[in-house]
Structures
1.
Amino acid sequence: MCIVNTSLRRALGLLSLLCALPLLALAEDRFEAEPINYSRATPVNAISRLQEGIENGTVALDFDPQSGYLKPVLAALGIASESQVLVFSKTSFQNDYISPTTPRAIYFNDDSYVGTVQHGNVIEISTADPELGAVFYALRQEQTGRPEFVRQGHECLQCHASALTNNLPGHVVRSVYTDAKGFPLFGAGTHLTTQSSPFEERWGGWYVTGTHGAARHLGNTLARATENGAEFDPEAGANRTALDPRVDAGRYLTPHSDIVALMVLEHQTQMHNLITEAGFHTRMALRDQAVMDKILNRAPDILSESTQRRIASAGDKLVRHMLFVDEVELDDPIVGTSGYTERFAALGPFDGQGRSLREFDLESRLFKYPLSYLIYSPQFDGLPEEMKGYVYQRLWGILTGVENTPDYLHLTNAKSRAIREILLATKPGLPAYWTAGQG
């Protein structure tokens, strides 16, 4: 005979409910509920701070008859025009204005993404919020004394909180076969583009300026629907150093859609999404543990095995991406056209030997020192301490060779040592054992 006391019975019942949470993960309201409260929470990010500056009079955005608020918004956010990439597939809510002759322009820095189309009514903005993940805004292209960034909800989340972003608010870089009018040929398939994507799946519906050797991609090409999918000529889009002649480059801030900027964009968007996932899952796990601690009368200062497993699951995914475990190796050098490579690398921070996590390789890999520069970002710093502590412990174990697994063979002893030294010189808030040299 088995006797279960009332408290334990209640706990087991709740545990059954909590174990079912992954089955509910596809529901959007998991981030609309406690502890995230996505739509109800007050954002604190680059755009909310910019809006605050507009309202208190410390920031002024001058309206330009040609580009509207685009240039002052980029200047206020510190986004370089060299980051410009152009997408001509109709995969935005401003589809009516997008075509192979009038592509949508996207500009970005470490935190924010700004999209604009020719003759469009609004500037589209998304930004990485330390608490809320990707937050979306629209700024009307109408001259006014007080421009307003209006937060967007369901219309953006239909795509930006879907299976493409693991059902959390996130950013998407998508590759699609695109016809002569800019319509995606969805019957031919689509590709979510990340640092792990093979070149032959990248940049469908995007313009690409730069050289990449023998590799071929989907960029710069128009496709024709066939019974078996789509037909296109990859040779026609390869190694272009100028925009397609159909595009009036004078209507854009630069005559480029830089290949290096595209590759950084692909790493960065997925990195933002994984930081969001790590933060959300940790906060949800801590919420669930607090409920169980109360029922079982447990000390709240000790992480349960279940909570530790949930933190480790999301943290491990983040660490792998940070260290470029799944990155596709390059067969030939990559050379951009816009000056983005030099502009990005100059941002630092640098250690005493002039080394930086932003230093490019572009011969066999994207970066010379494969640890994501977004470790410096406010979004990373805003992770719950439990998750940040786990990530730092994993990084230390991997970079010191204590954790020796085949996944990290690309991190030679010399590279691992260099990354540790760069972080020790440039990253505030590292755990004490990093400085002491022991884990």
2.
Amino acid sequence: MEQILIRITGKDRSGLTASVMEILARYDAQILDMGQADIHSSLSLGILIRIAAESSGQVMKELLFKATELGVAIGFEPVGDDEYEEWVGRQGKNRYILTIIARSLTARQIAATAEVVADFGLNIDSIKRLTGRQSLRSSDRAVRSCIEFSLRGVPESRDALQAALMRISSEYGIDFSLQKDNMFRRMRRLICFDMDSTLVQTECINELAERAGVGDKVKAITESAMRGEIDFKESFKRRVALLKGLDVSVMKEIAENMPITEGVDRLMEVLKRAGYRIAILSGGFTYFGEYLQRKYGIDYVYANELEIGEDGKLTGNYVGDIVDGKRKADLLRLIAQMEKVNLEQTIAVGDGANDLPMLSAAGLGIAFHAKPRVVESARQSINTIGLDGVLYFLGFKDSYLGDQGIL
């Protein structure tokens, strides 16, 4: 018996694989490995077979005739037993999925990524495009490009690899996710979002403060807290106190005019269709979280409750426990327990320092258009496109969704 690697290239056409397999079947060939790529109707097909030595010459002859008939090029390469066994031995190494995203990917960005992969001793097994093909004529601002690399190997330092990817992410303007390719990556079930500056492109407390005439004071405290410079609970108490006397009716107007983040509509529709449980875990306010809950069919909302006086005005106090960073992480664990979901199957998405505990607790923590400190601490980040970029980190392809463009 011997092994032969068959390589077929040329213009793709229907029935090509069937024709090749029909010939191999007549000679009882065993298929040891097989892979195919099709780029702009250009086919590259590889088949590794094991076949009786006395039949190999006739098989190659028939395949050459068939290739001529089909108008494709074909080549053969013998693979020795030792070479094959060495290749099999490499299959036991760790496997990772590296996903890179940008509005439009360039050769320079991919080259930088591939260089980091090689520097850490990882091998690229396969490359897959997850996004639909881009039009040359239309200029859609929401266009995006995503490629997924399947990597094999054991990096000397996962943290150092992560740091190198973070460096090129900043330098070349790409987003990335590096995940172990295990059963949990393929079986995510619970996703938890921060609300302000994540699901909506505003801080609702700042909107309230503007109506109360204390916008500058509250905004300064908010930004300091998001940078992690002051304790969230203390900053929350100070900001809420400044809202005293504001008529509660303004909350409805703010909710109805919140700027929804790019990609949220598409993301929510896909997550609900795919059966994910969705939660908002916010240091903001329940009124706005519940508004989004009704809009998108979100399963859980945990946020802060403002106290309202009998005169219909905010008292400057709050009701119940403050939802801070620690509380967010605890709530993620609690919901996972209630839903009977392993923590490795959970996802958390947020932008601020108070999101870091839940990003660390989740199986997949994603910093979204986040503050520098958060990006540095998170393992995955999205800074170049909308929130539906999360779908690509979960392995969705536009073609799975019947979506070659934008939903």
3.
Amino acid sequence: MNGMNHIRKQNYQTLDLTYTALGAVLIVLCSWISIPAAVPFTMQTFAVFFVLAALGGARGTASIFVYILLGTVGLPVFSGFTGGAGRLLGNTGGYIVGFLFTGLAYWLVTRLFGKTRVVQLLALAAGLLAVYAFGTAWFLFVYARTSGSVGLAAVLGWCVFPFLVPDLLKLALALYLARRLSPLLSLTQR
């Protein structure tokens, strides 16, 4: 009996790794769908929301971490087929790093309150606010060091306000698709 439990556990770990890798690949592919701007409009946030809602907090957050790690080592996984630590350390790198906060917020909130549609929606919205807060603070700091002082209202106008409605639409679409597809894919969320 102990041998069977070991096999099941090993298969489950393999499944976790597979789903995590597929989640990271989806984020990469969606980051390449881009409309250039000061902060590019991408489908990256859609993928982050979808991966979390479809795979669960643990696997989804791991997928986000793998995505960021791939970009950090120089693979061209970020928008515009870019990569490297310099991209993360630039003005908009905080928004990419902030995706980890979305994952952690989703994981914590759904673990504490369950995975009802409303809880998932609120967890993803809280994660989006965390991305905006961290990314904006990062932008203010890096921009001030490289280009001079800039006001919060200006940065919000460049990096947050234009993205609010599109990001909320992506959130709703990702949650809808994840809830529809998860049973078809037989995903056991963790």
